Amino acid sequence: MPLPNRWLSSLLMRYNGRMFLVDCGEGTQIPLKLSGWGFKALDTIFFTHFHADHISGLPGLLLTLGNSGKTDPLNLVGPPGLKKIVESLIVISPNLPYPLHLYELPYVKNLGTQEEHGYPLCDQFFFRYSGGNHNIPCLTYSFEISRPGKFNPGLAKELNIPLLQWSCLQGGQTVTLEDGRTIEPHMVLGEPRRGIKLCYCTDTRPTSVMPTFFKDADLLICEGLYGDDENLENAAGKKHMVFSEAATLAKESNASELWLTHFSPALKTPSEFICYAQNIFVNTKVGVDLLSTTLRFVD
Amino acid sequence: MPLPNRWLSSLLMRYNGRMFLVDCGEGTQIPLKLSGWGFKALDTIFFTHFHADHISGLPGLLLTLGNSGKTDPLNLVGPPGLKKIVESLIVISPNLPYPLHLYELPYVKNLGTQEEHGYPLCDQFFFRYSGGNHNIPCLTYSFEISRPGKFNPGLAKELNIPLLQWSCLQGGQTVTLEDGRTIEPHMVLGEPRRGIKLCYCTDTRPTSVMPTFFKDADLLICEGLYGDDENLENAAGKKHMVFSEAATLAKESNASELWLTHFSPALKTPSEFICYAQNIFVNTKVGVDLLSTTLRFVD
User: Fold this and answer.
1) What is B1-105's CATH number?
2) Does A64 touch chain B (CB under 8 A)?
3) DSSP bridge partners of A130
4) CATH of B109-146+194-299, one of 3.40.190.10, 3.40.250.10, 3.30.230.10, 3.60.15.10
5) How far is Cα A17 from Cα A142, in angstroms, rounded to an integer?
6) How far, in Å, CA of A23 to CA of A12, rounded?
7) 3-state secondary structure of B158
8) CA–CA separation, A76 vs B112, rounded Å?
9) Each residue of B75-108: pLDDT tens digit?
10) Which residues, in sequence order, are CB contacts of B158 under 8 Å at separation 6+?
11) Are B215 and B118 in contact (CB under 8 A)?
């Protein structure tokens, strides 16, 4: 439940002027407003699953988006059941001035890495998902920005490619020159470089594929319903995790940083329990309202 | 929409240990928690209408009530459409540990005073409703506590009524004595005394029956979407009111006090506009989060 001093868990990402939200519980539009990024550029809302604390804020946000002047489509992405749930909830937010596009992702429990789906969002931004282990179908997400290799101006000059076409090639597009030649990006680019990877994992037990699915994440945002290990059985019974399990996932994934979120209302001061995570994975932060960062390419 | 510094409008009443809520927009459970009264004793939720800012917090509150240990029924009362709306919203709050009892009130536009309905809640507490004038069916409510006349011990002694029966008669019940006589309350009570009347009016234009419906209210809680009269046309177009219209209703109703609520998000500091109301009705307060009072019988 939303608390007077703690909003429900959600993630807002901004990339190239578009915004992407993961989960939208009751009240989520308030920290969204506090972010100062406006509403209009919201492109897609992803849902991990359909428990109320992850979707009950949808009807209100849809109306607020309508009032923000949004007219371009809003994408809603989630596990099976999305269509039924959204159609039910929007009885109180009818007549929106923009279209809703719904994408139900097939739920595959313990999806193997080889079978992971990658879906493009915009430019070099895409996402993958993997089934979690909760008491209803639940997805974990990986949001990734790929980064092409470095452009080699020497090679471009050798190939007599006009300057005008350089940026297309840099952006990964194949170009056809006036003389009929086709130039593919790999002909003028170095090896693909490390991109950015942000993983979001909540309302699930750890699964065997997670260390692979989250591999080398720049930031792993992971739930921890309870702080201490004494509550492990309690957390497991509710299909949740404790801090040390999240930290183990971060360690096994070789993540760069871990943020803990989705605390039980009974866990009044999560920061008191951070040692349970940091004993396993040092670079851990306990999530607080409006915690934010900028992820940049590592050069 | 809920704002970082202003919850959506709602009213929580407590009477004889039971609680009654009017409207439940997104986030309403947070100020409910801040009230410190707990959740479990919530008896009934009334809805003025089914725009999202008045009902979108329902699924989350229902779950929180479940977690509070509530097992006795929760009553939901509102205009036509209640059943359909509630059934849609509770797809995300299934398996509640208490029953929901739904009461759809017939919507009668501009209901005359004579035809007003009075429904008992508990003990001497009852409510009436009257149709408002909004762009969807909307109800205004009057919550009233009746107060029997003063008990006259002299009369009771003259009638040889045993002390044991006095409290039943005081409470308005008819008693049959051992000697076979039937004593009705009016035989030992003075004239009914002034009770308590609290009226709640939001998302409607003023209607011709309101001054009668709200007559002699101890407290009238009334919307004012905008503060200044320059926005009257704007407010009327949206089927809302400005402060001066709410104040005129309070004056014409001979209310004791007026609280203004349901401000437009564009109205950032409603208190700056209080003069528009106080010029007409002095005893006006601008609603703020958690504004509360105790209404007592006037002796």
Assistant:
1) 3.60.15.10
2) yes
3) A140
4) 3.60.15.10
5) 20
6) 9
7) helix
8) 46
9) 999 999 999 999 999 999 999 999 999 999 987 7
10) none
11) no
CA distance A130 to chain B (A): 22
- List of chain A residues whose C-beta atoms are within 8 Å of the C-beta of residue B55: 92
Which residues contact residue A234 at a Cβ distance below 8 angstroms, ignoring those fewer than 6 apart? A226
Write the Ramachandran bin of B23: left for phi over 0, alpha for psi from -120 to 50, otherwise beta. left
**Helix (H) / strand (E) containing A55:** helix A52-55
CATH superfamily of A9-105: Ribonuclease Z/Hydroxyacylglutathione hydrolase-like (3.60.15.10)
Position A111 scores a pLDDT of: 54
Token pair 């501009």: residue: B110
A50 → closest Cβ in B4, B53, B92: B92
Of the candidates B73, B49, B22, which has an alpha carbon nearest to the alpha carbon of residue B204? B49
Among B26, B67, B84, beta carbon nearest to A27: B26
Among A1, A6, A24, A54, the strongest candidate for a mutation testing the B interface, having the largest count of B CBs within 10 A, is A1
When pLDDT is averaged across residues A236-241 and rounded to a whole number, the result is 97
pLDDT digits (tens, 9 = 90+) for B256-283: 999 999 999 999 999 999 999 999 999 9
